[in-house]
Structures are given as structure tokens and as C-alpha cells.
Amino acid sequence: MIFKVSDNQYGRSHPSDSGAFCFINLRQVLNEKQLHTLRTCYGANPRPDALMKEQLVEMTGLSPRVIRVWFQNKRCKDKKRSILMKQMQQQQEKVRVPFSYNYLFADNTMLFVTILL
Questions:
Q1: Are 115 and 92 a contacting pair, CB within 8 Å?
Q2: What is the C-alpha to C-alpha distance for residues 42 and 27, in angstroms, rounded to an integer?
Q3: CATH 1.10.10.60 for domain 31-115
Q4: C-alpha angle with apex 61: 55 to 67, nearest 5 degrees?
Q5: What string of pLDDT tens digits covers the 117 residues of the chain?
Q6: Cβ-based neighbour number of residue 38 at 10 Å
Q7: Could you say which DSSP state residue 29 is in?
Q8: How far is Cα 55 from Cα 49, in angstroms, rounded to an integer?
Q9: H or E segment at 114?
Q10: CB distance 3 to 30 below 8 Å
Q11: Is 38 in contact with 56 (CB distance < 8 Å)?
């Protein structure tokens, strides 16, 4: 497993400004094989059952929590994209002029739309 900042899997404590110790949550970076596996499974079923999640844990080597949070985040991103597309379609109906629109999502995918009337 690869972590962006890491002393161990569970984070590290360090002195805060007040002198007390605090806990840092670490963000795990997924490799391409893990991402491919998760995306493929998501394409087939965005809401996997417990058995499928357990299989993903074994196939990817990720924790059940990472699997669960990845699916939650992906569903949220897809919902936001859907809402954005709906808003753009409504704008098109109101404005009635050609325009282009680019939107870069957090997962580095880009939505490019050109509407010609």
C-alpha cells in the first residue's frame, strides 16, 4: 500500500500548535490496477452487495472501508455530473445561442460540450 504521508498504516501523531498531540488521517493512493478493478465493477453495478465488496477486498488488497468510501464518492461524482448535464440542457433551452463548456472533475476527467443551435 502507498500513502501520501505515512509513518504507518494508521497515521501518525504530531504536536499541534497548542502542544497537544493530534491524529492525522492518511489518504491512500490507489494504483492503476486497483482503479481499473473498481471502475469495472462500478460499471456493472454501482451498488455492490457485501459479497462483491468482499471479493473486491481480496482482489485489490484494499480495506473494506476504502472500497465502501470509493463507491460512495464515485456515486456522488456521477450524480453531480448528471445534475450538471441537466442544468446545461435547461440553459440551452433558455438561451438559444451556441456555446462551448468545459468542466474538469476531481478525478481528472473532462466534460467538453459544444452546443450548436
A1: yes
A2: 21
A3: yes
A4: 65
A5: 444 444 444 455 555 556 666 667 788 899 999 999 999 999 999 999 999 999 999 999 999 999 999 999 999 999 999 999 999 888 877 765 556 667 667 676 777 666 655
A6: 21
A7: E
A8: 10
A9: strand 110-115
A10: no
A11: yes
Give yes or no for a contact between 57 and 67, defined as CB atoms under 8 angstroms apart: yes
CA dist 110 and 102 (Å) reads: 7
Whole-Å CA distances, 1 to 8, 26, 85, 103: 10, 12, 36, 31
* 109, amino acid identity: T
Q: How far apart are CA 29 and CA 51, in angstroms?
A: 24
How far is the first Cα of the chain from the last one, in angstroms, to the nearest whole number?
A: 50
Give residue 62's identity as a one-letter amino acid code: L
